[in-house]
Amino acid sequence: MAFVNAQRSQSGLFGDVRERPEWSDACRRHDDYELAHGGDLTHDEADTSSPAYSPEGAFAADNSVLADEDAWTAAGPWFDAPVHRHQFYTPLLTETGVDDHGGVQCAIAGPAYNRALPAGGVWTMPGRRGQRRRGERAGQRGAGDDDPVRRPPGRDAHRAEPARLHRDRAGEDRLGLP
After folding, report:
1. Which helix (H) or strand (E) covers residue 177, if one does?
2. Domain spans of the chain, in order of start
3. Containing H/E element for 51?
4. What's the maximum distance between 2 C-alpha atoms anywhere in the chain?
5. What is the pTM of this model?
6. Helices and strands of the chain, counted as H and E runs
7. 152 HSE (CA, 13 A, CB side)
8. For the domain 2-112, what is the CATH superfamily, name and number?
9. What is the SS3 assignment for 167?
10. What angle (nearest 5°) sits at the alpha carbon of residue 137, between those of residues 74 and 90?
């Protein structure tokens, strides 16, 4: 959690996401299910007769972002999956559960989009490293912000486009590409 919150803070997002231990356990159970079924990533646990099946793991499967990386990089395991990265690095996220073992990663995101955001704010991920413009709230970002994620050598700079999360006039949260 310290690594996740440090990444979020570095990008100008709220760095106070709390771990829910029961969700981390659910992610561990889902990772165990995936490993027992050949290591393939899946957002369900369809084989309910499997000894690796659990209701907790099925909850994690339905509510998480998944990856199959050997190790977390500075960009996190979702570098090549911008939609998943934005689900996990949204300013709305307040709590999560995380597991990383056996080459698979799970982080519960969806049920924890509980943060109230001010109307008219625009957040980007990646955002600027803690720099704010005059009148800008912490975590709030404008268009054209620099990407603080250092791409590993050989990564195509155009593969991961930043998306913007904003609240529209009707009070609905929207995620879109610039």
Report:
1. none
2. 2-112
3. none
4. 58
5. 0.68
6. 4, 8
7. 8
8. CAP (3.40.33.10)
9. strand
10. 45
- The rounded radius of gyration (Å) of the Cα atoms in the chain is 17
**pLDDT at residue 153 in the model:** 42
In the sheet with 64-67, reading across from the earlier edge strand, the strands are 64-67, 104-108, 98-101
* pLDDT over 60 at 166, yes or no: no
**Residue 113, both tokens:** 């989009």
Extract the tokens encoding 76. 């996190």
Query: pLDDT tens digits, residue range 5-64?
Result: 888 888 788 899 999 999 999 999 999 999 999 998 989 999 999 999 999 999 999 999
pLDDT tens-digit series, residues 79-96: 677 788 788 888 899 999
User: Would you state the pLDDT for residue 70?
Assistant: 74
Question: Taking Cα atoms as reference points, which of 132, 123, 73 lies closest to residue 93?
Answer: 123
Give me the amino acid identity at 53: Y
